Structures are given as structure tokens and as C-alpha cells.
Amino acid sequence: MDISSYQLLLLDVMMGEISGFKLANMLKKDKKTAEVSIIFITAKDTENDTVTGFNLGADDYISKPFSLREVIARVKAVLRRTATAETEKEPEQLVYQSLIIDTTKKKVSIDDQEVSLTKKEFEILLLLVQNKGRVFSREDILTRIWSDEVYVLDRTIDVNITRLRKKIGVYGKCIVTRLGYGYCFEAE
User: Fold this and answer.
1) Which tens digits make up the pLDDT trace of 98-119?
2) Which CATH number fits the domain 3-86, given the four candidates 3.30.110.40, 3.40.50.2300, 2.40.160.60, 3.30.43.10?
3) CA-wise closest residue to 108 among 127, 91, 94
């Protein structure tokens, strides 16, 4: 049985050979099952038990007696919350052919060779690749990448784009200049 393929588990605190608390603890410590939602259903309704359940990573705690309608409503609520959280997660890697942008490690690689980029170059590349085909004016890029840090000239964008194109080699031609409008990343 592959528990990692489940979206949600209903656990009783007082199960046969192993307690629900112990099983939940084991599941949350394992990378493969840590994201599976857990709802405890139990006759143990002391504040201590409830707090223990939540501290172990439970998404909800239902004490007996309960109606089936309540359990179904709570299951649906947890699944809605976790589905929203999943769709809002930013992907850890953006991939375009052999160009890989690792958003967690803040690294770029081409053909498994790391490309050394400055923070601003990385952020510009990420912005353009995340929004393939969308044209960003210099002002858009300044606002998103430099925000309110310092006063930066429009030419700063041009200089960073030029350096970025050189550093990413064959993919440099994917960063296209739209005269009078700005820059975009065009997939071939």
C-alpha cells in the first residue's frame, strides 16, 4: 500500500498495534508521506489529546460522537485547503530545453553545467522565463527586480540583459528585444 499516493488519512488515536499519534508521527517524518493530510477521529477529546494531534501535524481533530455529515464536511474543507496550497506552490525548477532554473537553490544550469549569475541577472531571467512571450518594459523590470532599493537608470536593464544573454549562451537569443516596448523570453 503506497500511502504517499493518498491525499488524506483518517486516523483513530486508539488503533490496534500502533497508536494513531505514533503512526502520524512516523508519516510526517517520512519525506514521501509528510504532505499527506491527516484528520484524527477519536473518543479521546481532552485538550491534551487535541493539542498533541495538532502538534503532530494533523489538519483537523474530530471527537466522538460525530455525524457522518460533519466528517464529510471537514474532509472536504481540508482537501480544499490543501488543493489551494498545492496550486499556489511555486515550482522548484523551471525547465526550458536544457536550461534549468532552480528557484529553491537560486541556481541556473545549462546541460548540467552551472551558470554563474548575479542576483539581479537571476531574477531577470526567472521573471522572463516564468512569463514566456510576455513583454516587460524596462520600467516593469525595474519595478519588479529593483523595487525601491536605489535609483537605477533604464540603461542598467540593458547592461544586465546583455550580460545575461552572454552568460546563457545559446539561450541568449531567446531573450528578445521588442523595440520601443521592452524584453521577453521567446521559446523556439
Assistant:
1) 999 998 889 999 999 999 999 9
2) 3.40.50.2300
3) 94
